[in-house]
Design goal:
- The protein is mainly alpha-helical.
- It has a domain of 175 residues.
- 66% of the residues lie in helices and 6% in strands.
- A three-stranded antiparallel beta sheet has the order 1-2-3.
- About 6% of the residues have low confidence.
């Protein structure tokens, strides 16, 4: 089972991927997803170029071909603006923007560890290169060429496959950003769950420690109670010895008083005998 520390490391993009073995030779390093990015971009670019070549070769300019009635038509037209005919007449500006987008995507590819982000950036890269190719090679001149559009829905601008790929890639990137998933593989939700599990583990570890502290306090209280009991016993014993000593003193005093009484009686008897003897001699 994945620990909180491993989950936090994986959420930050610093740990092994799920299912990897313990640290050591079996540790699975993170893999960059540049291959997926290039594969998606290459597929989008190839489909866009081939579809445009077929449209130019087989369709008449401005004449729609009904594929699904009025719902889906193929209408060959040219566009000097951006996707969906936005920004008509700014071909050179959008060419520079496309170059900048391609450069930024290739820079991001160095730290691209997320498969969903590789798909999104691949769609964006393939579409940008497809439309940039039209602006470079088609008339009226390099970086001023008009892009071939041909897909038409009712009440919607005519577009091509590169435009569709750019739009899908942009929408997917927005969804991934709201999901909390970053191009470097960082998953904010996984990080939050890992932090929450870590807090729970720390709280669970703190409870036994608190119980041990309470047991120690109870033991100390018991020890103090025993000490107080011992002092009370010693005090009671000392009080008992004092009472015995007082009883002994009382008995000794009583004996002394008895002896004094006996001596007085003897002296009185001797005095009486002497008086009787003196009276007898006088007669």
């Amino acid at each position: 089972m994945e620990t909180a520390q491993e989950g936090a490391a994986r959420a930050h993009g610093d740990g092994p991927e799920p299912g990897a073995g313990p640290a050591g030779p079996e540790l699975a390093p993170r893999r960059r997803r540049v291959g997926i990015l290039l594969a998606v971009a290459g597929a989008v670019y190839a489909l866009d170029i081939v579809s445009k070549l077929l449209v130019v070769a087989h369709l008449s300019y401005g004449r729609p071909v009904h594929v699904l009635g009025d719902f889906l038509q193929l209408t060959y037209t040219r566009n000097s603006g951006a996707a969906f005919s936005i920004g008509y007449g700014y071909t050179a500006v959008f060419s520079l923007i496309a170059v900048g987008v391609i450069f930024v995507i290739l820079r991001l590819a160095r730290r691209l560890y997320s498969v969903p982000w590789a798909l999104a950036l691949g769609l964006l890269l393939g579409g940008a290169i497809g439309n940039l190719t039209d602006r470079i090679v088609r008339s009226p001149g390099p970086f001023r060429g008009w892009v071939v559009d041909f897909v038409q829905f009712p009440h919607f601008a005519i577009f091509n496959l590169a435009d569709a790929a750019i739009t899908c890639g942009g929408v997917l990137m927005v969804l991934l950003a709201f999901r909390g998933l970053h191009p470097d593989g960082t998953d904010e939700r996984a990080q939050y769950e890992a932090d929450r599990l870590k807090e729970q583990e720390e709280a669970a570890g703190a409870r036994p420690a608190a119980k041990t502290g309470n047991d120690g306090a109870d033991g100390a209280e018991d020890g103090r109670a025993e000490a107080r009991g011992g002092r009370d016993d010693r005090a009671a014993g000392a009080s008992g010895h004092g009472d015995d000593h007082d009883d002994s003193d009382d008995r000794d005093g009583s004996d002394d008083r008895d002896d004094s009484g006996d001596g007085g009686r003897d002296a009185a008897a001797a005095a009486a005998q002497q008086a009787e003897k003196a009276s007898h001699d006088h007669r």
